[in-house]
């Protein structure tokens, strides 16, 4: 059996490794456009910020290690097209520019995503970056360590934008964040939580510009400023963090069903609308358990899990992917925030009959150093009282509480059950009634 996997990062690497364990005799080939395999881009803000200095720590498995396991990885090879009826792919060797065909019995698309770059004038100036690849991280890290690059402007206030803002604050830069929306993280957290994060940024002297649109970059060869619909700002370094889109454009004419943004739709087996082709990672949609529909959630957790399931199915099994809740977390300076399920904004858009409750408390006992505010928001079904979503933000221990909420939602628990859930108590970690218990009680 011949298996071809397009892409060697989280989803593709997980699938290849699992398929080889399940079917040791299978001929598995991975085509990877870059020279890097199993790269975890989530570590880039922390590499840039100096939390670690060896970029190889973001690589979990090299091409050589794959080869020792019997998996053929061809880096520097770009798959140009797929002929589904013939079960062939057309591939370009980027070093020699040679184009050739290869055949497969089963195929997996794991081509990831590419950064969205808004229509801004003068994007070709130097010291203007996106942040997705290892090379991006290396160049931004070098630029950030240049003392002449004092004024940093970050365009976009999603996860990566805010993590980079933290890194630049820690490096002693003057930081300005420009966000098109009226809040930071608007698609991930409701206002009660984003207010905390915005206040933390402002307390750290980050200039936060909301409801503002970047029109042009200024400079002659090298960036010197940013012009928006509201003003002009000095800049020595600009980092564009305005989200990603699925990297599926070469395969949009082969008959696969996709979301409007190009994310490939798959079934519970990770299979596309073409039976012998599978897809996972940032190029594919996931089934959302709370929403009951496909959602585009470009996170490493879903990529690795669906990748593992597809690896089993490439080898001939019929394993099911149970879906996702979009559970995620971020740290912004002194604030942790975690989320899972649906936000109240999403529940309203989906027309779900729901209620919400917001609780403000402390993360642990007052006589233990480090006590801090903590905010919990629960979204639950109005009639059944089943938990649908939850968000937690505040001091130490806040983000990990989202895992409790994810477990509760996964198992269809009600707010009444959450109120009496047997959560731990010790003064350094919580109070006798944990904030999650209190939230459930108030919702009762």
Strand content: 25-35%
Number of DSSP helices? 11
Low-confidence stretches: none
Would you tell me the structural class of the helices and strands? alpha/beta
- Please report the distance between the alpha carbons of the first and last residues: 56 Å
Largest sheet: 5 strands, parallel
- How would you name the CATH homologous superfamily of the largest domain? FAD/NAD(P)-binding domain
| Helix-residue proportion | 10-25%
Which architecture of the largest domain would the CATH scheme give at its second level? 3-Layer(bba) Sandwich
The CATH class of the largest domain:
Alpha Beta
CATH topological fold name of the largest domain: FAD/NAD(P)-binding domain
Average pLDDT number: 96
Strand order of the largest sheet: 3-2-1-7-18
- Supply the number of structural domains: 3
Whole-angstrom Rg? 23 Å
Strand count: 25
Shape: globular
């Amino acid at each position: 059996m011949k298996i071809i996997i397009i892409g060697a990062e989280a989803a593709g690497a997980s699938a290849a490794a699992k398929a080889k364990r399940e079917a040791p005799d299978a001929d598995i080939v991975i085509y990877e456009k870059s020279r890097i395999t199993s790269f975890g881009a989530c570590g880039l803000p922390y590499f840039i910020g100096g939390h670690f200095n060896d970029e190889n720590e973001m690589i979990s498995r090299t091409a050589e290690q794959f080869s020792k396991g019997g998996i053929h990885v061809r880096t520097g090879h770009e798959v140009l097209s797929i002929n589904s009826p013939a079960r062939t792919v057309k591939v370009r060797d980027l070093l020699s520019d040679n184009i050739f065909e290869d055949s497969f019995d089963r195929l997996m698309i794991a081509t990831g995503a590419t950064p969205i770059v808004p229509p801004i004038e003068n994007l070709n100036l130097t010291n203007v970056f996106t942040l997705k690849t290892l090379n991006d991280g290396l160049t931004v890290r070098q630029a950030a360590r240049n003392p002449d690059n004092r004024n940093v402007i970050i365009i976009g206030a999603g996860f990566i934008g805010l993590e980079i803002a933290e890194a630049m604050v820690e490096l002693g830069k003057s930081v300005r964040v420009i966000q098109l929306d009226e809040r930071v993280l608007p698609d991930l957290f409701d206002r009660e939580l984003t207010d905390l994060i915005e206040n933390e940024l402002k307390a750290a002297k980050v200039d936060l510009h909301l409801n503002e649109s970047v029109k042009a970059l200024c400079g002659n060869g090298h960036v010197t400023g940013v012009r928006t619909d509201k003003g002009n700002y000095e800049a020595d370094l600009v980092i564009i963090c305005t989200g990603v889109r699925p990297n599926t454009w070469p395969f949009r004419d082969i008959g696969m069903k996709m979301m409007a943004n190009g994310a490939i739709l798959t079934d519970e087996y990770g299979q596309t609308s073409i039976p012998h082709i599978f897809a996972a990672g940032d190029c594919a949609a996931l089934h959302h358990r709370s929403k009951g529909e496909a959602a585009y959630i470009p996170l490493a957790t879903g990529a690795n899990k669906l990748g593992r399931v597809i690896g089993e199915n490439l080898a001939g099994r019929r394993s099911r992917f149970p879906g996702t809740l979009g559970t995620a977390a971020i740290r912004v300076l002194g604030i942790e925030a975690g989320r899972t399920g649906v936000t109240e904004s999403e529940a309203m858009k989906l027309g779900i009959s729901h209620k919400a409750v917001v609780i403000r408390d402390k993360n642990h006992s007052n006589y233990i150093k480090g006590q801090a505010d903590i905010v919990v928001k629960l979204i639950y079904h109005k009639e059944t009282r089943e938990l649908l979503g939850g968000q937690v933000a505040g001091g130490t221990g806040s983000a990990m509480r989202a895992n409790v909420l994810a477990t509760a939602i996964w198992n269809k628990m009600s707010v009444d059950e959450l109120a009496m859930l047997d959560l731990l108590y010790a003064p350094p970690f919580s109070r006798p009634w944990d904030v999650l218990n209190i939230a459930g009680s108030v919702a009762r």
